[in-house]
Amino acid sequence: MNIVMFGAGALGAYYGGRWAEAGQNVSFLVREKRKKQIEEQGLIIHSVAGDYQLDHPKLIVDPDEAEACDLLVLSVKGYHLNETLPILKKFVASGARVLPLLNGIEHIYRLQEELGEEAVLGGLAFIIATLDEKGHVVHTSESHDIVYGPLHPSQENLCAQLEQVMQNSNMKGNLSRMISKSLWQKYMFITAFSGVTTAANLPIGRIREQEDTLLLFRSVLHEMATLANTFDIDLRDEDIEETMSRVSGLSFEATSSMHQDRRKGLNLEVDHLQGGALRLAKQSGLSLPHIETLHALIKPFESGNPTTGTK
Hints:
KPR_N, globular, N-(1-d-carboxylethyl)-l-norvaline Dehydrogenase, domain 2, 5-stranded mixed sheet, disordered C terminus
């Protein structure tokens, strides 16, 4: 399969590297700075699932440099989505299909509107990985999963091809026939997990110790399930309980990528995640008071280190 990874951060470099390891034709569409770093330091994966070094990665900075593309995997942050649209349209016009691996749900509707429903598959990534000072991937958990599935009947054949690719790759792939529900289930979890850990500036273990704070977490899940229901996605109490069980099994120091970004003074995806939920709720005439409060608390940190008002 001809695969273009749009972005070569920890997620894009890991999955793209694993597909290249399995013999797929993988190119990485990156910025000049990242291209230079990979050329100087290499594309190397340090992983509990086995290390891998891609000796001659195909790096491109201009979409016109890409070879034939069957599948474009979009692995950028939500706040970069708008700037990717002109490039995505070029690839789709040439016959590519897009597999977005962003958190959230609003981007799916936006991409379908901009690119056409036939062009956009449903996709989720479950991985804990980061880049070290050399730009190498450091993958530290057993999880390195991609869940994917068709959002349009015309995508069935491509999903079947991708299933074969996954079987030969050192990662876990799961073809979901209910990908829309899977997307909303993760969105429900990540809205609560990222929102509460970032607003509280605490790992999940500290949050579990506080009954009131854990109740806030559950309340956000309830609000997200109600929102999903208005989009004809059947999330029920058992989905909430399954999510709470997952949370209880996380390590004490586990936290969200948004909370990690807050700690590092980096840009946050609060508008893409919590803000997206509020926009969708407004369309549906819903009120999400707990999510609205989390959004307001996190918003001052959205653009990195905020001024404190003190000297």
